Amino acid sequence: MEQSLKDRYELSKSLYAKWGIDVDAALEKLKEVKVSIHCWQGDDVTGFEEAAHELSGGISATGSYPGKATNAQELRADLDKALSLIPGKHKINLHALYAETHGVAVDRDELKPEHFAGWVEWAKERGLG
Questions:
Q1: How far apart are CA 8 and CA 2, in angstroms?
Q2: Angle CA 98–42–44, to nearest 5
Q3: What is the value of pTM for the model shown?
Q4: Tens digit of each residue's pLDDT (9 = 90 or more) over 35-90
Q5: What do you get for the CA distance between the two ends of the chain, in Å?
Q6: CA dihedral angle for residue 18, residue 19, residue 24, residue 28, rounded to 10 degrees
Q7: Is the pLDDT of residue 26 over 60?
Q8: Under 8 Å CB-to-CB from 35, ≥6 apart: which residues?
Q9: Percent helix / strand / coil, the chain, rounded to 5
Q10: What H or E segment, with its residue span, contains residue 36?
Q11: 78, 122 Cβ separation under 8 angstroms
Q12: Cα dist. 33→26, 86, 89, 90 in Å?
C-alpha cells in the first residue's frame, strides 16, 4: 500500500527525532535563511548557448537525467517546484550562459539586459533576489 506524502513526512520526522532533531523547528528556522540557488544545479552547467553536450566529469548535479531543463522555461519551472518545497524567500544566482538569445549566437561581451528580461520578470513575480 502506497504511503501518503504526509505519512512519509511523519515517518521521516520520527526517524530524525531519534537523533534529537526537531524537523518542524528546523523548517521554521529555514524560513529565516535566504538560500542562493544556482541555476547550474538544474542542468549541470549546460546552459542555453549551444546544443546539449555530455557532462565533462565536473559537477554532475543532475546526472544527465533525461528530463533535465533544456531551455529557460523548463529551468524556471524546475526552480518553481524546488522553491515551492523550500520554506522562506530565496535568491537565484544566474550565469551568463542562461541568457535567452532565442537561437541567435551572442558572444558574452555582447549580452544585453534584454537577454535576461524573462529571468528578471520571473524573479520579480516571485519576490526573488
A1: 10
A2: 80
A3: 0.72
A4: 888 777 777 667 777 644 555 555 555 555 667 788 899 999 999 998 998 888 88
A5: 42
A6: 170
A7: yes
A8: 86, 88, 90, 91
A9: 45, 5, 50
A10: strand 36-38
A11: no
A12: 11, 10, 8, 8
Which three three-digit cell numbers place residue 82?
524546488
Q: Give the amino acid at 75.
A: L
Q: How far apart are CA 14 and CA 57, in angstroms?
A: 37
Percentage of the chain modeled with pLDDT above 90:
39
What are the CA-CA distances from residue 77 to residues 70, 82, 114 (Å)?
A: 11, 9, 20
Instruction: At 37, give phi and psi (nearest 5°).
Output: -95, 125
